[in-house]
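dumping this here before i forget
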Amino acid sequence: MAMKVATYEEYSFDSLNTYAGIDCIVTLDLLKELFPTLVSEQKYNSWDGKQYIETRAPPILTELLSIKTLALEFTCDLRIVGMCYDIQANKVLDERMQRDIDSTKDRIFAAVGKEIPLSGNGLVSFLYLEKGFKSPIRTAKDDDSASGDALLALYEEHKLEWLMDIKRCQDLTSMHNGFVKTYIDDYVKNDGRIHCQYHLNGTSSHRISSSDPNMLNMPSAFKDYGYGLRNLYTSTPGYTLLAFDFSSCEVKVLAAICRDPNMIHACVNNYDFHSFSAAMIMGIPYEEFLARKGEPEFKKARQDAKAVTFGILYGSSVGGVAYGLGVSVGEAQAIIDSYFNAFPLVKEFIDKAHKEALANEFVFSPLGQRKAQFGAHPMFRGSAVYNGSMRNAQNVQIQGPASTLGLICFAMLNRALKDIGGRAVLTVYDSVEFEVPYGREAEAVEMAFYYLDDWPVENFEFLDFPIGCDGELGPTFGTLKHVHRGISQEECEAILAETYEEYMPINHREYLEGH
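structure:
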């Protein structure tokens, strides 16, 4: 159970006034000391591919004024408004899931002839010592595994239904404990909404994070079990939930930064990037690759290309790529080399990031966000700290701008939607969710496409093609349906009618009956 955190309304007005006053005094004293550093343009050695050129890094204050203040306004709105939660539906699911868990346990115990542990070391002992099964999967510590994947593999081998029931019980228990059982007591406030905290400085790559609860970790659909946990997160009755997300944002930010023509070509034409990169590595036309992507050789080529792309985006080592693909380090290096042959300017970008980290012990993104790289100091050379710093130098220049681009665009869209009664309720990585009044959905969709597609190109020098975005609407997080640019209000209402036929949130029922 999450620890209850005292909130402002639980303190007296005088106590809050004193706290706020002291906070302001201390902040102003700190600002006086730090201001010269905040506005200075620090010397920076920029690598042009052949030599270092002395330039200046943008002042820290620039990022604060152009990004953090706007992002803070947005995240404050998110926290104040919160997301509507269907309390009655939670209680229905709670009872149903508990019955399901209990009946699943009964089936397991009847099948094996006694009560057994359904997780942990007790289950491992039962499966591999008492029953004599051979473990199909090993843990990171090279122990026998009783994970869901291990249970699936055991079922495929032995065809014993109680193995699948154990997996079902594990999944249901995890769902129930994490998102249903005590969720209302832990996270839902008296207004029936979740007001989680968002942290602008919670990660090393400038990505946003959240807590109490972590709304970046939304529950899976678990469709196989028939539980629509995402339907518990709803729009306020009288409003529609509108969700938008950027398409492959980090890949497109990498393309915009490194300016590799092949990568830009794929982004501008909205290709499936992993298929395109695999086709480039294989030296065949993209259309031919798509026509044969179901063949084993081509499926593996796409998997390899995808692993390298994400390795670059997230700063993985060659060993990390090798582990992910299940190949040797030498084989992984060969795949990476082929990738860089297809996208040579990506390699130049990585080399530049590493050179500048070494020369300056910090790097900054196209949006002016800094990240110290103290591990780049020569004393750490050859160590894990040094290698991690090199990878982070490239990672922060991709993940940082991708996340920040989203925050700024979402903040601008939030301001615009307020004019028609809309309000931001949630952001999850590269996506944002709003609720807008009934009858204003089409207007909201057009605003969203403008601020996510057109506005970034108009306002960011490093970006000269749209990232691209996808939009959906519906009454709950689990009933969202696709929308397109230029959609009419009649089409929006038809989508809503369809979703309400599929699932009617309990907290919407009374409102709709009265209207």
